[in-house]
Design goal:
Length: 233
């Protein structure tokens, strides 16, 4: 976990961050968030999967500014390791590993895109130029790992109760945001009563998009998966 936190601190450093480049990264995150909302609109509209879809979009692939959070978590790492039970520690570690890859890719795409408008065609070109296909697939696997970890915990009522008991100690320790992340995930996945179909759907669709982009065939993606009309100035 600490390695991921240090990497995120370097990537998102507050002190020496270039404001113009940061704005470009935020724009990339915004386009991707809109793309994912388009690709998973059917899941968001399903009462069974809606909470998990919101968690997926907002917490795992969201637009939140988390540099301050990353810095605070580094400071609190000894407390985290002591306070969190193994299941929660492992889930947060996988989520941070996913966060690292996502941030690396977002910044790589921002460099490729520069200040040009972001549309489906420009994004696809930048995606290919950034490369690292294996890491793109690893990004999908990490998402699946986080989901499986959450799904495993909600099937064990005693563990779920133990998490809720951590609410006050976590807040006192300054880990309220991390606790909120865990609780939001567990609540969303508990609502599904089995995350298998949800996780498989995301994995299959993201792999299809990745394969199409690297092959230069994004136009062959079904309209429901790839929003050709989406554009940010």
């Amino acid at each position: 976990m600490l390695e991921h936190l240090e990497r995120l601190k370097h990537l998102r450093g507050l002190e020496d961050r270039d404001a113009g480049f940061h704005a470009q990264v935020v724009r990339v995150k915004r386009w991707q968030h809109l793309r994912l909302a388009h690709t998973y609109a059917d899941l968001a509209g399903d009462t069974r999967f809606a909470p998990a879809t919101a968690f997926f979009l907002d917490e795992l692939y969201g637009e939140k500014e988390s540099a301050l959070r990353d810095r605070d978590l580094i400071r609190m790492y000894p407390t985290i390791k002591r306070l969190l039970p193994p299941f929660a520690f492992d889930t947060v570690t996988s989520a941070l590993a996913l966060d690292v890859l996502s941030e690396e890719f977002d910044q790589a795409l921002a460099r490729q895109l520069g200040k040009q408008p972001i549309d489906a065609a420009n994004y696809a070109d930048a995606f290919r130029a950034a490369g690292r296909r294996d890491d793109r697939l690893r990004q999908v696997r990490l998402m699946h790992e986080v989901g499986e970890g959450l799904d495993l915990v909600v099937k064990k009522p005693l563990i779920y109760s133990a998490l809720k008991m951590l609410r006050r100690p976590a807040k006192i320790a300054g880990l309220g945001e991390m606790q909120a992340f865990l609780e939001a995930g567990f609540t969303a996945f508990r609502h599904m009563k089995g995350a298998g179909p949800f996780l498989r759907t995301i994995e299959q669709r993201e792999k299809k998009v990745i394969d199409a982009l690297f092959a230069g065939r994004e136009g062959d993606c079904p309209a429901a998966l790839w929003p050709t009309e989406l554009r940010l100035a």
